[in-house]
Specification:
- By secondary structure, the protein is of the alpha+beta class.
- It has one domain: 2-Layer Sandwich (Alpha-Beta Plaits), CATH 3.30.70.100.
- The protein is about 35% helix and about 30% strand.
- It has helices at about 15-30, 55, 75-85, 90; strands at about 1-10, 35-40, 65-70, 105-110.
- It has a four-stranded antiparallel beta sheet with strand order 2-3-1-4.
- The longest helix has 17 residues, at about 15-30.
Amino acid sequence: MYINGFVVAVPEGNKAKYREAAEKFWEIAKDHGALTQVEGWEADISDGKVTDFRRAVQAVAGEKIVFSWVTWPDKATADASHDKMMTDPRMKSMSMPFDGKRMIFGGFEALLMKGE
């Protein structure tokens, strides 16, 4: 399994818009091979002494942190889907309710996964 992980700051008032965009993104990702998508809306984020989620994305007052990930069968599937998803007309018509320049993201190989 391969995981694409994301952290982004979303204006608190854009929660419904973010969810709507995430729902649309899931349909695109699923059609291109994604297995699962999880979107976590900030509930309890502490300020760290050195770094934290807020600093990582330069969050400002009034923004909430979203922690998200998409799983794929393997890195090859994730990599092959990337360009296809970016050129998918559904993706081009989406507007993101956050500043994408401050999003952090990366790809990860599953090291351990337990439970559901």
